[in-house]
Amino acid sequence: MSRGRNLPKSTKKQLRALWLQVHKWIGLLLAVLIIPISVTGSALVWHDWLDAKLDPQRHVIIAPAGLAPSAYAATVAAQLAPDQLLTSLRFSPEGEPVLAVAQKAARGPGRPERTNFWLDPRDARLIDRAPANAGVVRVLHGLHGSMMIPGGWGRPIVGWVGIFMLVSCLTGLWLWWPLRGGFRSGFRWKRRNTANANLHYMTGFWILIPLAMLSFTGAWISFPKVFSQFESGSTRMSGGPRGGGGPSQPMAETRISADAALAAATPLATGPLLSIGWPTDRQPEWSIRFENAGPPSEVKVADASPASVELEPIRPETLARKIRRWHDGTDMGPVWQIVIFLGGIIPALLSVTGIIIWWRARASRRRARPTAVALSP
């Protein structure tokens, strides 16, 4: 990047003044959003660890599931409200509690209300229950993804924050570039006369690439319809519900049992059982997932007849899923996760140091005004 090396000096100064204003006002106006979004994003890098620390009874290693699916379903059925239906059972090969998910009959196009039940894998005894959106970790997800703003406005707002943060990264690089000297002079600690300003310059530069990546991928996640055109038809997510709008509804009564569906799918198993999904009004088939060397393998069993069994081909990872993994660090290894963690903490630091720089500059201008007036003839 030559940073306009061949531009006239006056043009360089004008551009620098413009980018300084853009960079400054993005930081000042959006700090109240950037700080919570960034800090919650850092915390969610360690989502599973945090969840296990806050609710250890849901993650304790007990034993692999040893009962038929109907036994776990029966325990949950006794706990359900009249308008709730069981949607899935999730199993842990490591021996954690069985997770059952129930869904309340949806009213309207919004996200259905779900409840989680944790069951002892040995005897199907109820260990814990909670609304799917309850708990500290879910609150962190809500703050990070939508700032918990109702009415469907939250997610687009967070997406625009990501776009403005990307612009802030680009303008910040321009402003970081040394006015005098070579590229290496930009790494000097004492470029400014305060530790706060030097901290802003240095941390901003070193986190630039990860922060730009997080900003871009965050915008992608917030506007999936806009960015889905960049995916090829073969890699777009095609496993969504069939039919019109609104969430699908689990069937109140199925023609075959979960035990029969599992028995039909077992000959095609590629590893330990991971989950059983109940048939819905749009997909009248059981979805049985097994552990596999890569992504889980999925077996579909028609609810009409257990003889109708089909092993779903393992689809390649979609670009949308890859973007999300880049953003949240899932299966990306500890180094990448640490980088993402810092990419969330440091923007909050940059917001604070940037506000301090602006405030001190403002105070300095105020102090200079009386002097200028006194010196004028």
Automatic annotation (TrEMBL):
It comes from the Bacteria. Keywords: Membrane, Transmembrane, Transmembrane helix. The chain crosses the membrane at residues 25-46, 157-177, 198-223, 335-359. InterPro entries: PepSY-ass_TM. PANTHER family: BLL7967 PROTEIN, IRON-REGULATED INNER MEMBRANE PROTEIN-RELATED. This is PepSY-associated TM helix domain-containing protein. It comes from Sphingosinicella rhizophila.
